[in-house]
Amino acid sequence: MGGILSADAVLLPPYSPENRDPFYHRILGTINFDTPFLGMHPGVIKSGIGSIFRPAPPNARPGPENHASNENVFLPMHSEGGSQVSTLALSTVSSPPSSPYTTPTDDPNYNPPFANDVHIPVRKRWNNALHFLNKHSDDLAHAAKTYVTSHFEFGGAMADYRTLNNRYKKLRGLEDIDDSRGVISSSYRQVRRVRFVNYYTACTGRLKGKATEKDKKFCMLPERGSGGEIDPTWVRVFMEGCDEVGAHCGLFFPENPHYEKLVVDVGHKVQEWIILNR
Question: Residues 190, 197: contact at Cβ < 8 Å?
């Protein structure tokens, strides 16, 4: 829900009618990570239910030896519809990559430990339930109610397609504004460009035999253009051997082969936006 909250922050109107800005905040842009602006893909429900009864693989988070090549941050790839999409593409190699973005193995200054590092323990099955009981032992009834209602609130927000669509259209429309022409809103306030990108996950699913050519996705995608092209502000991050929920949760695992490319491309995006905004 972080991406949707940031969208609401961008679109927040000014508190004072005397303010000549169209929005309360002056935000350069939003970088979103698998945010379901148009709702979650129906396949997520099936994968989520199935994951409850499926044991976790022994190596759920691949190590550095499974890293893919980091050459070419972007490669044009074809989706199941035949059109090209912007993709963080990966090609498996057997030898360590020689890219400048390769994870250093002998650099003591690379990602050193800090005193404020948070190490989140991994709890499974009943250990997670026992931790919840111990953590909220002083008011277990209230904690359980909050836990359940929060899931209903999330589900309700994802099912409100009209609100989702209206919010996305307003946010995405700000990306297409040309500041040099000066766009005036209905309240006679000049609207500035707000940049937008959403890195969405695509995966193969948990392979049980022949691989499928159709992507499995966590979030619904916007409609294609007249030529069948996908919106270039939606960037595909592809993963193999996991389902939609696993790909969504694994987006920020540093051990995964796409992670460095993702970080590099986000840095390039921020740099580009700042330079163009000068």
Answer: no
Prediction pTM value = 0.70
User: Rounded to whole angstroms, how far apart are CA atoms 223 and 203?
Assistant: 20
DSSP conformation class of 250: G
**Measured between alpha carbons, how far is 86 from 69 in angstroms, rounded to an integer?**
17
DSSP 219: B
* Bridge partner list, 236: 87, 200
Say if residues 206 and 245 touch (Cβ distance below 8 Å): no
Class of residue 246 by CB neighbours under 10 A (exposed 0-12, middle 13-18, buried 19+): buried
Separation of alpha carbons 233 and 172, rounded Å: 9
| Mean pLDDT for the chain overall | 75
Q: Per-residue pLDDT for 233 more than 60?
A: yes
Q: What is the pLDDT of residue 200?
A: 94
Six token digits for residue 275: 């330079």
Residue ranges of alpha helices (H) inside 70-139 are: 126-135
Q: How far apart are CA 20 and CA 175, in angstroms?
A: 20
Instruction: State the alpha helices, DSSP H only, in 73-218.
Output: 126-135, 140-159, 161-175
Question: pLDDT tens-digit profile of 123-142?
Answer: 776 787 888 888 888 888 89
Q: Are strands 195-203 and 216-217 parallel, antiparallel or unpaired?
A: antiparallel
- pLDDT-derived band at 256 (thresholds 50, 70, 90) equals confident
Residues recorded for the chain:
278
